[in-house]
Structures are given as structure tokens and as C-alpha cells.
Design brief:
The complex is a heterodimer. Chain A contains 18 helices and five strands. Helices cover 62% and strands 5% of the residues of chain A. Chain A starts with a helix and ends in a 5-residue tail after the last helix. By secondary structure, chain A is mainly alpha-helical. Chain A has one domain. Chain B is mainly α. Chain B has two domains: 38 residues; 141 residues, no CATH class. Chain B contains six helices and six strands, in the order ααββαββααββα. In chain B, a hairpin with a 2-residue loop joins strand 1 and strand 2. In chain B, helix 4 runs antiparallel to helix 5. Classes of the chains: A mainly alpha, B mainly alpha.
């Protein structure tokens, strides 16, 4: 672990914390419909949109109506994405003349982008036309993030409001999140990315003459001479910006943010990581302001920072280690090389930035990668896997991280109440049986889907067919796939060939259930909380603004995660680590 | 319910046009206006022929060129099919592949810098570390009948430091280094 690496990591978290307050305050103003400096430009657009679509912005919705609107909208947008993929061969902007996307893959991709997962079973360069990327995938990058944001705001309103039956208007929250937050930041960010070298064009792929022709042996054993290189192009920067800001993570290219056209310089890498945490960190401030307790927001943020640091430290340490199986290889850090485990990593990012990116992208439900997680050391790969298994609530996805974290807050408050033998209260609201039942339902759906589907997959020939690695690492690949899909992350141990009927279908189901089945109990809690009276704080009230609360919250998250998943993790990454040290290869 | 469906469909279509057509095309137009070369992929021309992109690595395996890292993209540096190897550290396939690369790259008794024998995440990594470039100086100098000192200077000239002296890692762009090497003759 180099000193420079730690400096870069320190600079990153300092930037995240500095931006949290301005970002959080801005979002509070946007969703409270207070004035912002973008109003003169955006208010007319907003009004026009409502008029065209028949939306009445003053209409308030109960939690059920809010969820129904969200589901109907998700269904409509899912259908559009499916249709564009299926028809891309007859639509314009397809300079490579790519064929229609097959039905199972189009289903998987449509669900994937609708649920903010952005799992990609396909190789984009050879599957998706420019139009499909622009029209089918880019809007989903905005929509799924805006939906998450809207749901988080609705949940926060549930906590803040008293004796009310409504949580706001879904369409208004969706629109304001898109027009005021996501679109302006993405537009500026996209141009900054282009200035650093991220491509943005609509021209056909370039063919260039290689400086040194290469003799290559194909899979069939025949030797051919390669004299040219085909370079995939496209409107990348506009997609890249919202891919990161919306914690979507679906790459324009197969190699995602490891591809030099998506992430060409250390600065773009820094900004991409920063943009993953920008909105989730800001939302903790929005939470504090909207519920009238800014210190509660900071206490939640503190728990996130603690868990982020634990992941970053472990991952940076593990990836800096030498692989004991490699001989005559210099793996030590020095002034002229980063050393460590460089398989699957880019030279310009080295170890520190690859380990940090992997931690950040899985703390949040982003899933973009700038290094291949499948090639991480066993313990280095354990970090992204564990981060997703904890529920992606360490900063978390845009909106989804916030509401996921708030469910954990409710459980933490409940446990604190049990310990002192009083009815638990959260910001003046009594936490009762119904709230805890729904919170438990939210927490149980997640491991149930992951573990059940992974267990089925390891028993099926179709589940084992696509493994690139064997032994415990193979189990990690399957476990990671279902974890990533159910958690709506989208990163992968990408050695698993997932473009098969079995994986496209089962992962599609996992993504769908992991998003929508968890939203229902979460919103039920929000609706129930909004209707409650405020109980004045007393000596027996557990304060949610103190370091003690931060410790308790962190403890609950770690204990729930560890108790649920330790057995399967010990059969995957932990076992692989021990066997690798003992010299066992697969 | 019917009203909600109509709203959802209209909303999807209108915002799809805004976010999926207007937004990317506006960015494309602005990028073309402000940073045309970068938006097009920074292509390099030599003697009127396009020979590559500054950002995209190319395979070099001859003794007279500085070698790039191994690549898992297609048959190697296929910029139409970016990919890593996705092999884990306990994979026998990986260890065998690295050993083969070590056998090719090893020059004398010093161990080979790790990046020179491992595949990048994209399969298109344009860079090697300064350590990996320096390691190859002796071989290239011998093959091309050049002094090691002159080549070491060339490597230094083509080394990019950390951005702002802080971000990322120092690196050498292999394509640009080899083009400069060809220009020395």
C-alpha cells in the first residue's frame, strides 16, 4: 500500500464530504418545490410536461397510489426498451448493421436497466446499435435513478409528516429529480469527460493499420496475420455521465470504465467515483433537513463512512499483496510501478484506484467497474461481494441506498428499544409491530432470492456450464451473479458466461424481485409512519443523533449481513484464500 | 387505472425523446464544436495513414519494439471486443499463461515487472509502467543497434507522470513510444 494511494483515497472522501451539504440542501429545495436558480429555465418545461401527460402536480398520493404509478411507469418504460432492442435492425443509427437483439437477452436487458441494475449479459460493441444505446438505455439511466430518488424522498416525507395519509406526487418527484438534479449535472459532466478524451460521435467504427502486423493463432489452431485494428466508437460521454451519476453502471463498452474511451485519465476516474457518491451522500443531508434534525443526517453519514473505510482498507491491502503462485515476477510497489495483483487492472489506475473504485461501485448500487473483480485476490473480491450483500446501503444507489439504510435505522432503533425495555421511537414516531414486520420482510426477501437461486444454479448443468473458474472461485462467480442482480448492482465476476437462457431468465427474475418486491414493504412503512402522531421526546427516548447511534447502526448492519451470509462466503472467497496460500490451483 | 396507463405511456415517450434523443445529440454537437479531436477518439496519422488511437493499445511482440501487456480482447487488442481475462488468482490457466509470458519477456536474472505479464481489464490498456518500459530497454537497444542511454531517454520523454502530480499512476504509452522509436531511424 503506497502513501500516494492513501493520499488519493483521502482526497476522494474529503471531496465527497465537502459536496454533501450543498448537494443535499439543493435536493431538499428541489423536492420541497422551493426556488432554485434553474427555475427560469426549467419551470416552463416542467409545466409543459405536466400538461402534455395529464399530470396534476398538486394532487397528493397515498403510498399505494405512489407505488402503483411507479409500477405502471416502470412497465411502460420497460416495454419501450424491449421494443427498441428487438427492432434495432430496421431503425436508424446502426452503422455496424447489428441484428435485432434476441428475445431472452432483450428481456434481461430491459429488466436490468429498468431496475437500475444494468447487469449486462451482452457485449455492447457487437450487440447494441447507437440508437439502442441512446434511446433504449440512456433514458433508463435517468428514469431508474429518478425513480429511486423519488422513492427515497417519499420515505423521508413519511418520517417527516405527521397524521397525514399521503407522501407526495410520484410524477412531480420523478420530473423534478430528472430535470433539476440528474440532467443538468450530467450535461456538464459529459462535456468534462469529452475534454479528457471520452469519445462522443456517431461515426462507424474506425479501422486502423497496425504499426506491427501480428501473427495470431485462433481457437481452431490456424495461424493468421492480423494487420488492422477495428476501434469501436459511439456517443459514449453522454451515457457515461448519467451511468455514474445515476449509480447505474451499465457500460457503453464491454470493459465498462476500464475501457480507455470510457475512462481515459486518472481525473475522469476520480470524477466518476465522486459522481457515484455525490447524490447518495447529499441525501443524508436532505434527510436531516427534511425531518428537522440535521445531526441525524450526519450520524447516518458517519455510519456509511465507517463501512466505506473498512471496505476500502481491506480491498487496497488485499490487492497490494503478491500472488504466491507467480515466480520470476516483480510484484512489489516501487516508484516506477504499482505492483500487486495487476491481472484485470489498468496501468493508469494501478492498485489504489482500482481497489477504491471496486469498493465505491458496490457500496453504492452502481456496478460500473474499472478493473475486473473476477481477477481480484480472494479477499479483495470478498469486499465488493460483501458490500452488495450488506444491501448497498453504504451511501448506496441513488435513492435506493437511502431507503435501504432507513429500514436498517428502524431495525436499529427497534433493537435499542428492546435493550432498554421501552417502546422504540424514531424521531418522535413510535415504531410498532407492523413497521418491524415490514422491515423484516424487506430484509428477508433479499437473502432468500440470492441463496435460493444460487443453490439451484449450482445443482443445474445449465448453471455450471458458463463458469470460467473452477473450485471455490466458481461458487463465487455464481454467488456474485445472483447477489449483483438481486441487489440491483450490475457488476460481475464476469468470467461467468451469463448470456444463456437459464441465466438471462433467472437473473431477470432476481433483478425484478430485488427491486420491486422490496419497494412494497418499504413504502408500506413510509405510509404507516406518515399517519402517526408525534410523541414528545422523553428520558427514555433513544437519541438518533449521537456517535452511540452510529455505532449501533453499523453494528446492526454488520451483524445482520454476517449472520445471513457468512456460511456461503466461507465456502467461496474465504476457502479460496486458504487454498491459494496452501498452493492449490484449479 | 386507465388514466394512469395513458399518463405513463405519454410520460415515457416524451421524456425518452428528451433524454434519449435531444440530450445525446446536444452533447454530440457541443463536443464536436469544443473538443473535436477528443470526441473522435484521438486518432494518430503517420504518412497519411491512420495507425491507431492515442488511447487504445496495440499489440507489439517483435524484439525491436517495446511490448504491450498481454490482452484478453478478442485475439489480442481487438478494440471491437474489449475484455479482461476474468481469471482468478487460483486459476491454473492464469498461472500457466503468466509463466509463458515470463518466459518470453525475461531478460537476464531480474524478475519481470508484473504489468508486463498480466492482462488488463479492458484488454486495450495503452500503457505499461515505467518499470516495464525500462525492463525492455536492453532488448530493444540490442535489436535496433541503439545505445541503451538514448532509449532510456526516449522512455523518460514518453513517460506521463501522475495527473496534477497526484492522481493515478505514472505510465508510458506503448504506441506513442514505439512510433517515436521508429522515428529515430
Amino acid at each position: 500500500m503506497s502513501l500516494n494511494g492513501w493520499l488519493q483515497i483521502a482526497l476522494f472522501i474529503a471531496a465527497v464530504l465537502l459536496l454533501a451539504k450543498p448537494m443535499g440542501t439543493y435536493m431538499m429545495r428541489v423536492f420541497d418545490r422551493r426556488g432554485t436558480w434553474l427555475d427560469p429555465l426549467l419551470l416552463p418545461c416542467e409545466r409543459l410536461l405536466y400538461r402534455v401527460c395529464g399530470i396534476h402536480p398538486e394532487e397528493e398520493m397515498a403510498w399505494t397510489a405512489y407505488v402503483v404509478s411507479m409500477l405502471v411507469f416502470s412497465a411502460a418504460s420497460l416495454l419501450l426498451t424491449y421494443l427498441v432492442q428487438r427492432l434495432q435492425h430496421v431503425l436508424p443509427l446502426n452503422p455496424q448493421h447489428l441484428a435485432a437483439v434476441p428475445a431472452d437477452l432483450a428481456f434481461n436487458t430491459a429488466v436490468s436497466f429498468t431496475t437500475n441494475t444494468n447487469w449486462q449479459s451482452y457485449v455492447p460493441e457487437t450487440t447494441m446499435s447507437y440508437l439502442t444505446q441512446m434511446l433504449a438505455l440512456v433514458p433508463h439511466n435517468f428514469w431508474s435513478a429518478a425513480v429511486g430518488l423519488a422513492l427515497a424522498i417519499a420515505f423521508i416525507r413519511g418520517i417527516a409528516r405527521r397524521e397525514m395519509s399521503t407522501l407526495g406526487n410520484f410524477w412531480v418527484d420523478l420530473t423534478r429529480g430528472t430535470l433539476w438534479v440528474l440532467l443538468p449535472i450530467s450535461a456538464v459532466f459529459a462535456l468534462v469527460l469529452v475534454s479528457q478524451g471520452v469519445v462522443q460521435n456517431l461515426k462507424p467504427y474506425d479501422t486502423v493499420k497496425l504499426v506491427e502486423a501480428q501473427k495470431v493463432t485462433g481457437a481452431d489452431g490456424k495461424t493468421t496475420t492480423v494487420t488492422t485494428q477495428t476501434i469501436a466508437q459511439g456517443p459514449v460521454a453522454s451515457q457515461e455521465a448519467i451511468k455514474m451519476l445515476g449509480t447505474n453502471g451499465g457500460g457503453f463498452f464491454n470493459a465498462n470504465s476500464a475501457h480507455p474511451f470510457e475512462n481515459p485519465t486518472p481525473l475522469t476516474n476520480f470524477l466518476q467515483m465522486l459522481s457515484i457518491f455525490l447524490i447518495p451522500a447529499g441525501l443524508t443531508v436532505t434527510l436531516g433537513q427534511m425531518v428537522g434534525s440535521p445531526r441525524h443526517g450526519w450520524a447516518v453519514l458517519a455510519a456509511m463512512v465507517v463501512l466505506w473505510f473498512a471496505g476500502t482498507f481491506t480491498s487496497f491491502w488485499a490487492e497490494s499483496q503478491v500472488n504466491p503462485q507467480l515466480t520470476h515476477v516483480d510484484q512489489h510497489v516501487s516508484a516506477t510501478q504499482a505492483g500487486g495483483n495487476m491481472e484485470g487492472k489498468e496501468v493508469r489506475f494501478g492498485i489504489a484506484n482500482s481497489a477504491l473504485f471496486a469498493t465505491v461501485t458496490t457500496d453504492a448500487s452502481c456496478g460500473a467497474v474499472n478493473a475486473m473483480h473476477d481477477s481480484f485476490t480472494p479477499l479483495g473480491g470478498l469486499v465488493p461481494l460483501t458490500n452488495i450483500l450488506l444491501g448497498e446501503i453504504v451511501f448506496g444507489g441513488v435513492g435506493s441506498g437511502m431507503y435501504g439504510m432507513l429500514v436498517f435505522v428502524i431495525v436499529a432503533v427497534f433493537i435499542a428499544g428492546l435493550m432498554v425495555g421501552r417502546t422504540p421511537e424514531y424521531l418522535g414516531k413510535k415504531i410498532e409491530a407492523y413497521d418491524v414486520q415490514m422491515a423484516m420482510l424487506y430484509m428477508l426477501i433479499f437473502p432468500l432470492i440470492i441463496l435460493a437461486l444460487a443453490a439451484v444454479a449450482v445443482r443445474l448443468p445449465a448453471g455450471l456450464a458458463g463458469l470460467a473458474n473452477h473450485g471455490p472461485h466458481g461458487l463465487s462467480e455464481i454467488l456474485y451473479a445472483y447477489t449483483s442482480a438481486t441487489g440491483n448492482n450490475g457488476s460481475a465476476f464476469a468470467g461467468l458466461s451469463a448470456n444463456t437462457h437459464w441465466y438471462n431468465f433467472s437473473l431477470g427474475v432476481a433483478m425484478f424481485v430485488g427491486r420491486f418486491m422490496m419497494i412494497v414493504p418499504m413504502m408500506a412503512i413510509a405510509g404507516n409512519l406518515a399517519a402517526k402522531k408525534i410523541t414528545p421526546a422523553s428520558a427514555g427516548t433513544f437519541p438518533v443523533t449521537t456517535p452511540l447511534f452510529t455505532v449501533l447502526l453499523t453494528g446492526v448492519i454488520v451483524i445482520v449481513g454476517a449472520l445471513t451470509f457468512f456460511p456461503v462466503l466461507s465456502l467461496g472467497p474465504v476457502l479460496e484464500h486458504l487454498l491459494l496460500r496452501a498452493g492449490q490451483l484449479f | 387505472m386507465k388514466k394512469q396507463i395513458i399518463t405513463a405511456v405519454l410520460y415515457t415517450v416524451v421524456t425518452a425523446v428528451l433524454l434519449g434523443v435531444v440530450y445525446p445529440l446536444a452533447i454530440t454537437a457541443a463536443a464536436r464544436l469544443l473538443f473535436r479531436d477528443k470526441a473522435d477518439g484521438q486518432l494518430i496519422t503517420r504518412n497519411g495513414e491512420v495507425v491507431g488511437s492515442r488511447l487504445i493499445g496495440q499489440p507489439f511482440t517483435g524484439a525491436g519494439y517495446f511490448h504491450s501487456r498481454p490482452s484478453a480482447a478478442g485475439t489480442g487488442y481487438d478494440a471491437g471486443a474489449s475484455s479482461g481475462s476474468n481469471l482468478g488468482p487460483s486459476s491454473k490457466t492464469l498461472i500457466d499463461r503468466v509463466n509463458a509470458s515470463v518466459a518470453t519477456e525475461q531478460n537476464g536474472t531480474a524478475p519481470v515487472p508484473v504489468d508486463l505479464v498480466t492482462a488488463s481489464g479492458s484488454g486495450l490498456d495503452p500503457d505499461i509502467t515505467p518499470a516495464a518500459a525500462t525492463y525492455q530497454v536492453a532488448r530493444v537497444a540490442k535489436e535496433r543497434n541503439l545505445s541503451q542511454q538514448a532509449l532510456q531517454q526516449l522512455v523518460q520523454k514518453n513517460t506521463t507522470d501522475r495527473q496534477f502530480g497526484l492522481l493515478g499512476e505514472p505510465r508510458v504509452n506503448v504506441l506513442q513510444l514505439n512510433l517515436a522509436l521508429d522515428a529515430m531511424h
